[in-house]
Amino acid sequence: MYTVIKHRRNSFILGDYIRLKYFSSSITDNGDSTSVNLGSKKTIKNFDDIPGPKSYPVIGTLYKYFPFIGDYNAETLDKNAWLNWRRYGGLVRESPGVKLLHVYDPDNIEAVFRQDDRHPARRSHLAMQHYRLSKPQVYNTGGLLSTNGPEWWRLRSTFQKNFTSPQSVKGHVEQTDQLMKEFIQFIKCKKNLHKEDFLPYLNRLNLEVIGMVAFNERFNSFMPDEQNSKSRTSKLIAAAFGSNSGIMKLDKGVLWKFFETPLYRNLAKSQEYLEKISMDILLRKIHFFEQETAENDKSLLGSFLQQPNLNLKDIIGMMVDILMAAIDTTAYSTSFLLYHIARNPECQKKLFEEIVTILPKKDCQLTAEMLAKAVYARSCVKESLRLNPVSVGVGRVAQKDMILQGYLIPKGTIIVTQNMVACRLPQYVREPLRFKPERWLRNTEEYENLHPFLSLPFGFGPRSCIARRLAEQNICITLIRLVREYEMKWVGEELDVRTHLINKPDKPIALCLKSRIL
């Protein structure tokens, strides 16, 4: 007896969601291939039968990442995924020290996420977790990003109350818009802006926004004395990048577990600076936090301090996670969005026409109600995230045996959903490489009913990005203010990505900004 789960969207049966406990007695060993016979219907093949690179004893498929002899690159995971898909198809096996499965088809991606237990697990930020657990005087856990199980859920369920509530997020619109106005004045003072990389300016903007929204703290990122490399804001931005850039390489390595490698030392140094700044902010907040201020404080930190099941070490960990995640991630996503808008004048024209109806004058205050009317702007954000998501896909650790497309996926397998590649395949999206925001506009001729598990830029389910709504809102406000103020043209090379855990533009963000008269 066995159970088959039918696919939610389609009438056919998706192979193969069969719980192993119902047919474990039917497993037979046929030499190199273990199979499960389900009468005359299916033969379940084992994990090693999944197509993928040749695996060798001890090193598995790690040789594919070796310099000179390998054709994979840890900084171009999207290219690796393309190679795998073209060579092996929609399910690809690797064994770089662990069992690793790449999943491309959105039906199979949905199947993976429908298997999630109450506490979805992931294998990530291992070196950061090691670093934090070595400092019990500062941290209780490895943080929200690396922790699994009930302890992860304790943190997530407590912190997410103000992060994910739509009403709470809307409460930050006007504050964020005011910072955007300051940012506009900041870049107006820059000469020859079109010859500079716009990304560092976006880093400063997002640091300033997250400082106010999360901590009620002004970092003064736009001030002249903060522009040098030794300033607090410059060192914060560098520490966030230093934390993020090495995580994926450290996750693939093992030497740091035995001694401090240069990459691990850089991670530790970056984490130390982020925790120092977080401690300074937290101590000031505690010592000078008057009751009247606490009641009026809308910051996330203010809400954290009022949670009875959090202590200061939990809060420090979350503050460091926020600084790590908010600066680079939002700046990179905004960079790709501006790239697409600047290269597509027709889309930019439609966007400006919508923005003018919302903000007839440049100095109008943007409110949550006005932002809700920016339908085309939100479609532009969605379309940019389809083409250039935050990361190549979403990671999970299989918490039980499952059958996927006729193959047995053992418990403990690392599964990576390859959404970025899938979003660029014509079988799932019409004109997939074209930037076309109209495909997201319901009740229009150009609307596409895309598979709900195709584009997942912020993940899925309880393990999705805790700040998704806040990030999308900040990106949208940035887009609206810049397009309201400037006509943008792209004057750089075609952009691609470098994968430092999150997708970073591989070339400078080269924009020519021409002030609008209207």
Automatic annotation (TrEMBL):
Residues at which heme binds: 465
Molecular function per GO: heme binding; iron ion binding; monooxygenase activity; oxidoreductase activity, acting on paired donors, with incorporation or reduction of molecular oxygen
Pfam family, one: p450
Keyword Oxidoreductase attributed: yes
Cofactor(s), by name: heme
Cross-referenced InterPro entries: CYP11_CYP27_families, Cyt_P450, Cyt_P450_CS, Cyt_P450_E_grp-I, Cyt_P450_sf
Keywords: Heme, Iron, Metal-binding, Monooxygenase, Oxidoreductase
Gene3D superfamilies per record: Cytochrome P450
Database matches in CDD domains: CYP24A1-like
Similarity remark: Belongs to the cytochrome P450 family.
Protein name, as recorded: Cytochrome P450 30
Organism: Streltzoviella insularis
Native organism taxonomy: Eukaryota, Metazoa, Ecdysozoa, Arthropoda, Hexapoda
